[in-house]
Write a structure and sequence with these properties.
Length: 260
């Protein structure tokens, strides 16, 4: 078994193991929501889930580094660094909407090579790693290949995006309106859920105006292995560019042209 396959199997199990803990707090009326310095929400579920994943990594791969949203970075002594977002989509999570995910990404020599995106509220997972393909499992079903769609015409395409206010903040309101006009459907299925809709062929484009590394590190290798692209608004394949696009191969150039 390769190092990457071993870590992919581990990450899948780690995300599954933390799912019951997260669901204890999902749709719990007593859940306390705390506002961080940037006004984004955090809960005991976010912090507890990340702690559990960090502990599992430290026990299995003590030389690997760890970077996560909720706690300080732990430097590693080899070429691997895990990048964690225990609940990507805390805002829908605290509102009782199941479109949030646990993201476990892995860098090797600074390159994003592995990703797991598990949706506890849906009992669904999409995962992939460089050279190992991208895969999708719903519930207790068998795994199937995750593949982007082949739709090439905007008037047949489904485009997802985050809060439209973020387009206005970037002075991109006109571009947003053009997408709304030319693409068949525009929906606000945001965060990792929108990106994984692209990876599984259920949507063609997901455009996110604001992303942190832990939001994107797991997504890039999944979308790429599914036959699509995860790039910044400038067209660079990277997870630390501050924004992100998941798109099928057929519409990539169209999307980048409209944002350019």
């Amino acid at each position: 078994m390769s190092d990457l396959q071993e870590r992919l199997d581990f990450a899948n199990q780690a995300a599954l193991d933390v799912q019951p803990f997260i669901l204890e707090y999902f749709q719990n009326p007593d859940l306390e929501v705390i506002r961080k310095g940037d006004d984004s929400p955090v809960t005991v579920a976010d912090k507890g889930a990340e702690e559990r994943i960090r502990d599992a990594i430290a026990a299995k791969f003590p030389d690997d580094g760890i970077l996560g949203e909720e706690f300080d970075e732990v430097p590693g002594s080899n070429s691997y660094r895990w990048v964690l977002d225990p609940i990507d989509g805390t805002k829908p999570f605290v509102r009782g909407v199941p479109l949030f995910g646990t993201l476990i990404g892995l860098e090797r020599d600074g390159k994003c090579v592995l990703g797991v995106s598990r949706f506890p509220g849906l009992n669904e997972v999409v995962y992939g790693a460089e050279g190992l393909g991208a895969w999708w499992i719903r519930g207790d079903g068998s795994k199937r290949r995750a593949k982007v769609s082949e739709i090439s015409s905007p008037d047949e395409a489904l485009l997802c995006t985050a809060n439209p206010r973020r387009w206005t903040d970037r002075s991109m309101k006109e571009a947003f309106e053009l997408f709304n006009t030319d693409y068949r459907l525009t929906r606000g299925w945001a965060d990792c859920y929108g990106h994984m809709l692209v990876a599984t062929g259920r949507a063609e484009v997901m455009i996110d105006p604001v992303m942190s590394l832990w939001d994107a590190a797991a997504l890039l290798p999944i979308v790429k292995e599914a036959g699509g692209s995860f790039v910044t608004w400038a067209g660079e394949e990277r997870a630390d560019g501050g924004d992100g696009i998941s798109v099928n191969a057929a519409l990539k150039e169209d999307v980048l042209r409209r944002l350019g």
